[in-house]
Protein: NAD(P)H-quinone oxidoreductase
Organism: Propioniciclava tarda
Amino acid sequence: MRAITLTQFGGPEVLTVGDVERPTLKPAEVLIRTAAAGVNRADLLQRQGHYPPPKGTSEIIGLEVSGHIEEIGEDVTGWSVGDPCVALLAGGGYADYVAVDAGQVIPPPPGVDLITAAGLLEVAATVISNMDHVRLADGETFLVHGGAGGIGSFAIQYAKSRGCTVAATAGTEEKLEVCRELGADIAIDYHDDWPTHLREATEGHGADVILDVMGAKYLDANVTSLARLGRLVVIGLQGGIKGELNLNKLLSKAGTVTATSLRFRPTAEKAAICARVRDEVWPLISSGQIRLAGETRFPIERVREAHEWLASGENVGKIVLTF
């Protein structure tokens, strides 16, 4: 089968289309014939050698796919060959076929084409699992960084569906307008003094929950921006891995700082999260409460361009590779 392989760690030029063996199916798994694969920031980090897959997982890049069931493990029920599906992966997505535990496979949202669906599950699972983790409550004030990206555009709408006051940061006026169109009540240019802008816009309250993809670079500013009893959850490290935490500032707010990685969660947890997405998020998409923010499509042969486009910072919404 075709798969994207690495000649070494490095820039997009190390990505090549090669031939590898088709995965061997385990009893609790299904084999999916890939229609499309989502492209995520984690993929760029893995390509650079900074985000290796969990032990025993495919070395092939790719954390989510859409496609059709090709083969069913002997312990699997509820699926038939040919069924359309989407899957949450720990790796292996940039390939013609992928084997995955059946608990991490769900039908695509009703009415959404299979290519678009490839870019929905990882985002939805990331957002809903982290909002559960920090106990986002209806009506709270919520801040997400990178509001026009895949995670941000979904998080804005999910928080709005919960009745939250939503703030988002972005780097250009075009992206700030995207945030507003998606429902952000407060849109802030991150080049400015965004903690001050947030404090003023919330009349001194700050954010009850912050979803952060930057890591070290924003750590102090995020803690500054927390409301009393506020919760910061870090899910990305685009701004570095080591930051200085002012414990006195955190103590004075009775705040919480936590960090999670969806990729390294046990299979049973991922299955539960996928079920939550199917039962809670897909109906929000069907009802129009969450609108699809659009995606940019690249054929698998142009995977290098897809990585370059994501790294450029110009992208809005999701990027998917088509097979």
